[in-house]
Amino acid sequence: MTQSPLARRLIDRFQHGMPVCAEPYRVMAQTLGCSEAQVLECLQHLQLAGTLSRVGPVFEHTRAGASTLAAFAVPQERLQQVAERVNQYPEVNHNYAREHRYNLWFVLTGPTRAHLDSILQELEQDTGLTPLDLPMLTAYRIDLGFALEATP
User: Fold this and answer.
1) DSSP 8-state assignment for residue 133
2) Domain 61-134 is in which class?
3) Average of pLDDT values for 70-96?
4) pTM for this model (two decimals)
C-alpha cells in the first residue's frame, strides 16, 4: 500500500525517538511542519488501514519487568481460536502464525517472571496445549525500525 508523504515522514522520523512530553503530537507536528490534527489524522488512517498497530514506547524489559517468547503447536483448525485467547492478555505484545510445528508465536511482557508463568499456566489449562517458553538470555540487537524514505 502506498503511503502519503506525511505518513512516510512521520514513520521515518518518529518510529524512534517519539517526544516524551505532555503534548507529543503537537511536537511531532511542529517537527514535520504540519498541524497536530494532520498528525492525528494520519496516525488514525495508518491504524485503520492496518499499517500501524500501535503508538507507544518500547521498554527495556530487563529494567521494567520480565519478558519471554512463547509458542504453541496448535492444530490448524484451532489456530484462530487459540490466537484470540492469547490476545486477551494485555501482556501480549506480538502474536504471529508461523509455518512450523510450533505455529503460534507470541511475546509476553509483565512485571515479574512469576506473573508470566501464571499466564502461561492459564493458557495451558484453557487450551490444553503446552507452551514452549523461551526467555531471552542476551539481547544482541533490538532496534526495530524501517526507513521508508531513500537516504543519500
Assistant:
1) E
2) alpha beta
3) 96
4) 0.66
